[in-house]
Amino acid sequence: MRYLSNSVHSKGDEPSKNSDEQESKIKEKLQDNLDRLKIMLGDSNNLKMHPFRFGTNNSFSGALVFIDDLVDNPTLTNAILRPVMS
Length: 86
Prior knowledge:
With 86 residues, this protein is of the alpha+beta class. The chain has four helices and two strands.
């Protein structure tokens, strides 16, 4: 996250250490982090974010973030999502 956070600034725009530290912190809300990733990585068509719920009574939230065409979707479903959600 720190590298990505720094990459959104132009070369002449040096953020203060305090704002840099604040930007690199993971937020408590999942959607805030997903929104931030969209901004940092660009809102491209091949950036996929698959939010899901898991745990007892679906009490936890998670998201699978990947670049489409770089991964095999059935493998993601079978190897990652199904085991986490069951």
